[in-house]
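Need a sequence for this fold. Nothing fancy.
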């Protein structure tokens, strides 16, 4: 079972009788260790159903589940592999009654939370509500109640927020709902306050393995400690050098607490890197060196020295993007890479992507943007989908709460609070409770009439949607419905910016177009990957249209993401296919040409755009499903553009780390103690911690690279509307590349290669002519 493991990995896998901390450096095979340890525990006689492996993302959980299945076989299906939040849902579904929760409690998303907070705080300002949401989330992650938060408030603003938190919690209880943070906080409350529940879960879980342990927050640590109990059957796998989520509550204190809470803790270091060359790892080790170490380690590789790390300077951001594209082209021309998917461009902040998108489009290089916003995460699309979900499933309480309050219909929180309490008492969904004959005993007649009117309206919409077939009727139905609920006015009333409101309304209309085309059979989901292809769409252009284009050509997930604005993205996509474009090249095709010609081109390329007509309700059923499932990326042959945070856990043969400039990476370090943020200036304790996290972020970026790494910075950069002088990041000096560093201009390299290819072509043509001469 331990075949193929190095000695340190074997030590971690074979230690099963107590708490174990595995310090897994970047690329050191941590997932391999976790899956092999699961297999070893089963081999030693532990029932697979008593093993839990906890990750931070659904994608990581899916990968771990698949790898465990390939290693262990059928028994792997009995292992609980899930995220922290999924485990919390499981615990609350089973034992939440002890806290007054019914098993069908609702999980509110971020927009639902913001809406309730605006109501609880008596504000219509979205920015203020989001500030409350952020503060409350941090307090919950610290394990604080509203009363505790108020007691330790540092100023009047925090006191006000704590009181709003108390009212917010009352509403959640009344609605039989929880937010994302409650999926950790309430299980902790269960385990702390109910010994019988704690003993049940400790008996149920014989061993708990935690991936990315450095990203846990204080509440998650307490949950883990109570789950494993005094026996400490825990394997924590993580890397303090890759802790980059302090801004959302993750704390390295959890690493410090382990040996204190578990004195018998065994620590195993995984330092052999299987990903990168020695040149890349040397730069990474040098960068992370100045940070204080809980457990010092140094990565090493047996993959050879490899290409030296390149430092590329540029005049400005446009120049930097040109050089980055030139480097990609020259690397492929040199034969060092065959496919676009071997390249990644990594940056500190989302806004940096746009200029690289433009350069890649200009060069007709296919790409995708990771770490952006999914189309279905946009508030206006969530609003519409809530109504669809309620048509399909009247027992969907979160959908009910969103639909009944968006737009507002004169049904206030007091009415909903009483309805929620009534539904809870009689174990009904909110929609069922609405029609109960005894509802009048807890609500005034006017409130009951308003609820009945809403219920009848939903039922009427469901009936009509079931009998609305084809594109034309579907579009007419949806536009009439949006007019009935005055949704356009709702958007404009809710935004301070008229331009932003107009953009959101355009998204709604595009979405309606897309829905009606599906009802008309003009788009066949079976030939594509579904509407989740709009995920990560950058601003500019219609994400819904980008989805239509991707679906019509049967593209893989995310391939719709990058269609440029202007014209119809669906048409651009079809046109690109007719030209024989590869993955994502259709999405980035420029506008122009006849839509009819482009459609003909698509058909000639084997893209079928016609299917049988469907009812709007059938279409809504698919949407309701797709808006709640996780998208799964296929292996696309495209260049990846990604933030450093979104790139964590991934790797590419060739990485370009861009914008490595003071003020970007590290990001805006100046404060009142050190306005410049320079390394030679005085630093407050908070600033020092932020700098250390930024350094870890640089380390994460460097260690994504397998074979080559280029680091670029700009001499000038935009700040607002001005161009300001810029300095290379202090991290470039910390890499200590010295003579191993190679400064290069990829454009010159590419120019030389093109000249060489042109000469070869001329020579080849001349040789062919000579051979054919009489």
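Here you go.
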């Amino acid at each position: 079972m331990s075949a193929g493991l190095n000695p340190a990995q074997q030590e971690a896998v074979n230690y099963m009788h107590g708490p174990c901390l595995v310090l897994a450096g970047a690329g050191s095979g941590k997932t391999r260790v976790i899956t092999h340890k699961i297999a070893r525990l089963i081999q030693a006689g532990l029932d697979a159903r008593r093993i839990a492996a906890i990750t931070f993302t659904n994608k990581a959980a899916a990968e771990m589940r698949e790898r465990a299945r390939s290693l262990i076989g059928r028994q792997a299906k009995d292992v609980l592999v899930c995220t922290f939040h999924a485990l919390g849902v499981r615990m609350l579904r089973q034992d939440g009654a002890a806290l007054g929760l019914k098993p069908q409690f609702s999980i509110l998303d971020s927009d639902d939370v913001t809406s309730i907070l605006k109501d609880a705080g008596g504000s219509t300002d979205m920015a203020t509500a989001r500030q409350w949401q952020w503060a409350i989330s941090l307090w919950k992650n610290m394990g604080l109640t509203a009363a505790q938060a108020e007691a330790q408030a540092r100023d009047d603003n925090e006191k006000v927020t704590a009181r709003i938190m108390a009212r917010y919690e009352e509403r959640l209880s009344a609605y039989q709902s929880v937010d994302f943070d409650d999926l950790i906080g309430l299980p902790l409350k269960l385990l702390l306050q109910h010994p019988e529940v704690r003993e049940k879960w400790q008996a149920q879980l014989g061993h708990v393995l935690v991936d990315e342990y450095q990203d846990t927050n204080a509440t998650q640590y307490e949950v883990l400690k109570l789950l494993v109990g005094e026996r400490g059957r825990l394997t924590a796998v993580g890397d303090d050098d890759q802790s980059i989520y302090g801004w959302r509550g993750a704390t390295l204190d959890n690493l410090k607490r382990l040996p204190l809470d578990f004195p018998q803790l065994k620590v195993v270091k995984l330092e052999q890197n299987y990903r990168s060359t020695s040149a890349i790892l040397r730069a990474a080790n040098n960068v992370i060196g100045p940070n204080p170490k809980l457990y010092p380690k140094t990565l090493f590789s047996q993959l050879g020295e490899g290409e030296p790390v390149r430092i590329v300077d540029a005049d400005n951001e446009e120049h930097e993007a040109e050089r980055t594209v030139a480097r990609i082209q020259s690397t492929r021309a040199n034969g060092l890479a065959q496919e676009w998917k071997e390249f990644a461009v990594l940056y500190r902040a989302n806004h940096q992507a746009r200029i690289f998108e433009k350069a890649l489009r200009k060069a007709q290089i296919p790409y995708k943007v990771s770490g952006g916003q999914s189309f279905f995460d946009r508030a206006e699309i969530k609003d519409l989908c809530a109504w669809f979900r309620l048509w399909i499933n009247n027992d969907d309480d979160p959908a009910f709460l969103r639909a009944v309050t968006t737009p507002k219909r004169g049904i206030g929180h007091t009415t909903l609070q009483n309805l929620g309490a009534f539904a809870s008492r009689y174990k009904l969904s909110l929609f069922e409770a609405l029609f109960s004959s005894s509802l009048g005993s807890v609500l005034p007649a006017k409130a009951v009439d308003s609820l009945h009117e809403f219920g009848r309206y939903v039922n009427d919409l469901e009936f009509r949607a079931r009998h609305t077939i084809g594109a034309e009727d579907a579009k007419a139905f949806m536009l009439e419905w949006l007019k009935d609920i005055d949704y356009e006015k709702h958007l404009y009333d809710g935004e301070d910016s008229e331009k932003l409101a107009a953009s959101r309304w355009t998204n709604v209309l595009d979405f309606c177009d897309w829905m009606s085309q599906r009802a008309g059979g003009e788009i066949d989901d079976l030939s594509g990957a579904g509407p989740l292809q709009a995920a990560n769409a950058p601003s500019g252009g219609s994400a819904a249209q980008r989805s239509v284009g991707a679906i019509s050509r049967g593209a893989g997930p995310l391939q719709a993401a990058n269609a440029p604005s202007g014209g119809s993205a669906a048409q651009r996509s079809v046109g690109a296919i007719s030209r024989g474009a590869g993955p994502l090249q259709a999405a980035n095709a420029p506008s122009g040409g006849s839509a009819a010609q482009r459609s003909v081109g698509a058909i000639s390329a084997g893209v079928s755009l016609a299917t049988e007509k469907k009812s709007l309700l059938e279409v809504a059923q698919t949407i309701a499903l797709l808006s709640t499932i996780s998208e799964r990326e296929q292996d696309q042959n495209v260049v990846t553009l990604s933030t450093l945070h979104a790139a964590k856990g991934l790797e590419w043969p060739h990485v370009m780390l861009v914008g490595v400039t003071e003020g970007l990476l590290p990001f805006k370090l100046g404060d009142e103690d050190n306005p410049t943020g320079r390394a030679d200036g005085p630093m407050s304790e908070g600033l020092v911690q932020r700098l250390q996290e930024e350094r870890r972020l640089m380390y994460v970026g460097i260690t994504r690279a397998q074979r080559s790494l280029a680091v670029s910075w700009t001499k000038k950069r935009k700040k607002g509307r001005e161009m300001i002088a810029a300095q290379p990041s202090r991290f470039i000096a910390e890499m200590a590349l010295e003579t191993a560093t190679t400064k290069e201009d990829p454009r010159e390299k590419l120019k030389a290669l093109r000249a060489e290819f042109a000469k070869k072509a001329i020579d080849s043509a001349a040789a062919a002519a000579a051979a054919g001469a009489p």
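For context: The two ends are 70 Å apart (CA to CA).
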